[in-house]
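QA checklist item 7 of 12: single-chain prediction sanity check.
[x] sequence parsed
[x] length recorded as 589
[x] structure emitted
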Amino acid sequence: MFRSHTCGELRIEDIGCDVVLSGWIQTVRDLGSIAFADLRDRYGITQLYFNESIHAQLVSTPIGREFVVQAKGKVIERTNKNSKIPTGSIEIELSDFEVLNSSSTPPFTIEDDTDGGDELRMKYRYLDLRRPVLRKNLELRYRVNRSVRNYLDTQGFWDIETPFLIRSTPEGARDFVVPSRMNEGQFYALPQSPQTFKQLLMVSGYDRYYQIVKCFRDEDLRADRQPEFTQVDCEMSFVEQEDILQTFEGLFKHVFYDVKGVRIEDSFPRITWDDAMWFYGNDKPDIRFGMQIANLKTPVYNTTVTDALGWDVFGFSVFDNAQTVLAIAATGCAEYTRKQVDELTEWVKRPQIGMSGLVYIRCNADGSFKSSVDKFFSEDQLKVIAAKCGAAAGDLVLLLAGNETRTRKAMSELRLEMGNRLGFRDASVYKPLWVIDFPLFEHDEENDVWLARHHPFTSPKPEHISLMDDRSQYGKIKANAYDIVLNGTEIGGGSIRIYHRDLQEKMFAALGLSKEESQDKFGFLLGAFEYGAPPHGGIAFGFDRLCALLGGQETIRDFIAFPKNNAGRDVMLDAPSAIDDAQKKELGL
């Protein structure tokens, strides 16, 4: 028996018990005639006490960090208790110990506050995973996985696997391709998602499907993106949008409570895509705080929202010559110093934000107003602008002006930055919402082509299907699509699907595919639609992303056991790597 208990199990009520523990040595403190060591395993840490009689054995059989040790002894009460760990009231007075395996000196400390940099920790990921903080992350990932599966099982969903070696199809990102030895000169693609397979399962009559599945996209990386990632993929038949929103709102409520103990009683808010862009500047609003964007000038983009201030002439050339003028009221910031305002101005001038400057209005506590452009605006005008922003006494109104697209994106970023600076983006607060009524298409101005905003299998709103016959109306068509957003991060999206062949062919044609191309790439799906395809729809959400948010972090990498770095490399395996000439010849490369 290598162990009778784990290193996180023993408590004060176990005093007097004879136990056997096994694990890794985290620290050793040799005091001369006695010594102490921390023994760690997946479950926790227990202190070992080497009394005078066993200390001699320690001298002849030294141990060091990350040695694998079996320890035998009796549970006793600790003199100096450690309230930071669950086992901190006890220790093991050793009667014997055995070194099961020695260890080289680790390249970094195996502790939460490690001295190892990202690349070093990635190279020795098997050591990095011993750190308690990563263990907790992977434990949370497991619990989310179990919670999702349990909920979907109660709702009648079946877990059905789909292939990883498929045909390359256009889905919005580059495919990873795999050469076929048995079919020289031809290639499989790794799936960007199981999209067409889950639709085919609906045609097959499996009306509630899910899969927690690996997906692959050859795209540039960032904190919440990996070349291979995991998503929870779901599809349902005989449903409308409301059925899907209700089902998966229930899933998220279940997970929040089951994993984090957070009970959400109210329905998730819903906002249209138009309103999200109008009031937040992006389609994934963070609603943990207000500070909505006020539009002071009639916009140039197509929207149903019409509550701009409407001052087409301001008497200030920077605003008069701009396509749009946007503002937010930063809560309680009227006391910002000139240095702080100048720092914000430099922040918006950064290349990644791209603005030429920043205008401010102080809403002073005494009811007066002070602006960086006082000579162009009367106090009454400043008061109107402040009121439009919902500013109160003590707030600081921040204004940006310029090109519509760039300014809206910049104001969105400035709002989030101010939310960070003011402490409004608390990672322990969860504010989900649905974004609905997306445009079906987006226009590529440079190439004058229409692209699918979600994917080519998304259905238009029923009342907009007739507009599919007129290319000039594409910009007005709304998709029967929805995203779920948590704390300013899109964690999932889906749609009601096209299930009639003629409408699917119209969609492919709108995206520039000829009938021959459509048949070549998607003939299997178009053919399936001729055999009684039911109305269906679904959703997929980023499992890694959800786990990171529930863990209070933005990066997904520390919630994946063996991730890639920002260059898409596995530095532990040194992959991707070259293959030898014999393999190339075998594959016809």
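[x] summary fact logged: The chain has a mean pLDDT of 93.
[ ] second reviewer sign-off
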